[in-house]
Amino acid sequence: MEMEITFPGGARVDAHFGPYTVKTDQPAAGGGEGSAPTPFSLFLASFATCAGIYVLGFLRQRGLSTDGVRLIQRALRNPSTGMTEQVEIEILLPAGFPEKYREAVVRSAEQCAVKKHLEAPPAIEVKARIG
Fold it and tell me: Among 89, 1, 12, 99, which residue's Cα sits nearest to residue 47?
């Protein structure tokens, strides 16, 4: 997959791929307008939204309702470095959810492709070309 990254003004940086544009910005304190999420916020959001896709698939395959099902993600940072050291994803299941599926729905979320790529990260090469 190829993405084109553009700079539409201010601290905004957009990613274009296929028919989509993902917009990012920085908060006012960081020199932006806060008009879109930061790139790092989108990175974090990819964990829980990916897990959510797997949970949704699990529920659909079994004919279970998504009513009342939510995922809550918490990013825990090291106060001395500011680096995110742990990401917790909690799947909230409604009362009456079949107990026999509770652990299985967790296992389905753990199959998320974003999580798997972080466990075996790709090499990232940055280079510049003129012209």
Answer: 89
